[in-house]
Design brief:
The complex is a heterodimer.
Chain A (H helix, E strand, L loop, with lengths): L8 H17 L6 H7 L4 H12 L3 H17 L5 H7 L5 H12 L3 H17 L7 H6 L10
Chain B lengths: L17 E6 L2 H11 L3 E7 L5 E6 L7 E6 L8 H12 L4 E7 L2 H10 L3 E9 L2 E7 L5 E6 L2
Parallel strand pairs in B: 1-4, 5-8
Antiparallel strand pairs in B: 2-3, 3-4, 6-7, 7-8
């Protein structure tokens, strides 16, 4: 079948590039008015279209990306304060408050939980791998079930 | 009188929680599935020199682990079989599944901008609206729009 032609594709493309800009520049001080200008939209139209596509306003999406990136950084040994600044927040208090609202744990508790899981994986990785795969890979002796 | 009557219906197989995708390089596959497709890392466990158990999940399906399995000579593949498998994967022989998204046109534009190679643009077929893309190894997937 022929590829369908969609009259709104150019609108989608502009909103997608705005989202990609947020994805790539989340750590910077992003002025959402500028993004709307770059996308050739009025601020209101930009927010409405962005929300209709992604289910979040651009500001909500920026916060979401920052918190998701923070979760990745917290799984490493970077301190909570440094993670806060690395993902674009200027205040540890506001970062901690938003993180707890969105994740349900403080950054410190989340980091401790991640470190504990990593330690469990390192000490007993086979607990996290289905037995059949571990056997096929030669990571454990073949079972005697049969 | 039977005393073991339960109102809860006992089901047999209820769902899938692991599926394997054979990849040529786990580091490259990590970048593709996590940084391009936006999947979450579920488990990343080093299993000795050159060996790694790596699973990822689609963002809204955390209980389905996709195991990115490297094709190495070992217990799973003898040397010749490993080479055959690598050849087949890189030639695009295998299609491992169908992914779903809310808005195919938007997802297509975004993934394309991130460098994902599509072999079929979004197309309205009799069974639904779909596109096809390849992972970094050559495995292909269908991408469909919900509803």
């Amino acid at each position: 079948m022929a590829v369908l032609l969609y009259p709104k594709i150019y609108l989608y493309r502009r909103i997608v590039y705005a989202k990609l800009f947020i994805d790539d520049n989340y750590a910077e001080k992003i002025d959402l008015d500028n993004i709307a200008d770059e996308a050739f939209f009025s601020k209101f139209h930009f927010i409405r279209l962005f929300h209709s596509i992604y289910g979040k306003t651009p500001h909500q999406y920026l916060s979401f990306v920052r918190i998701e990136k923070a979760k990745q950084f917290l799984a490493t040994d970077i301190s909570v304060a440094n993670v806060c600044y690395a993902v674009g927040f200027e205040s540890v208090t506001s970062f901690t408050g938003l993180f707890k609202r969105m994740v349900g744990q403080t950054p410190a508790v989340y980091q401790a939980t991640q470190h504990q899981r990593q330690a469990e994986i390192a000490s007993a990785p086979l607990k996290f791998i289905p037995n059949c795969f571990a056997e096929k890979k030669g990571w454990k002796p073949v079972g005697s079930f049969e | 009188m039977c005393t073991f009557v339960s109102t809860k219906q006992i089901k047999m197989i209820t769902k899938m929680n692991h599926v394997s995708v054979f990849v040529l390089n786990q580091d490259s596959a990590f970048d593709f599935y996590v940084n391009k497709l936006g999947f979450k890392v579920h488990t990343d466990a080093p299993m000795g020199p050159g060996m790694r158990w790596l699973t990822v999940c689609p963002p809204e399906q955390p209980d389905l682990e996709i195991s990115l399995m490297s094709i190495d000579e070992g217990m799973m593949f003898k040397k010749e079989a490993a080479q055959q498998m690598r050849d087949l994967v890189s030639k695009g022989t295998f299609g491992f599944g169908v992914f779903e998204c809310d808005n195919l046109l938007v997802t297509y534009e975004e993934l394309k901008a991130r460098g994902v190679e599509f072999t079929k643009k979004p197309t309205q077929e009799f069974y639904g609206f779909e596109a096809l893309f390849k992972d970094d190894s050559g495995n292909w997937f269908s991408l469909g729009q919900k509803n």
